[in-house]
Amino acid sequence: MAESNSIRVRLVTPDKIFIDGTADSVSVPSCSGYLEVLYAHAPLLAELGPGEVTLHGGDVGDQQLFVSQGFVEVLPDRVTILAESAIPPGEIDVAAAREELELGHKMWNEAGEDSERFAKADRVIREAEERIAAAERAGKSA
Questions:
Q1: Alpha-carbon distance 6 to 4, whole Å?
Q2: What CATH fold (topology level) applies to the domain 7-87?
Q3: Is 124 in contact with 104 (CB distance < 8 Å)?
Q4: Tens of pLDDT along 40-92?
Q5: 43 φ, ψ to 5°?
Q6: Is residue 55 within 8 Å of residue 62, measured between CB atoms?
């Protein structure tokens, strides 16, 4: 049974359950910025943005996973993260992320007047930049 100040955390991708345990706090990247979730947090549903899910304490211990797209549901006693992908920052392929960044800039330059193409290019650029930054924080470089 979880302690009164711990929250249940579950991080799931289409392939795997990455985390299923308790934590004292969870930081989650949403499209509008990072959310810090503690026990008794107000309920919310948010779209995930690219970035690192950071867990502290509880039975999952301190750990980080880079996630891309998906959703997070926060309830007072639990957090459910549904992500398209999740990877430890130290396992990020920095060279591939740099290629993705170059592709995003090319898409941006070729978008013309099409706002949907600009939005897609922006998503590609943001995810690539976040992957590179997460890898660098983990001490990995290309």
A1: 6
A2: ATP Synthase; domain 1 (2.60.15)
A3: yes
A4: 999 999 999 999 999 999 999 999 999 988 999 999 999 999 999 999 999 99
A5: -60, 140
A6: yes
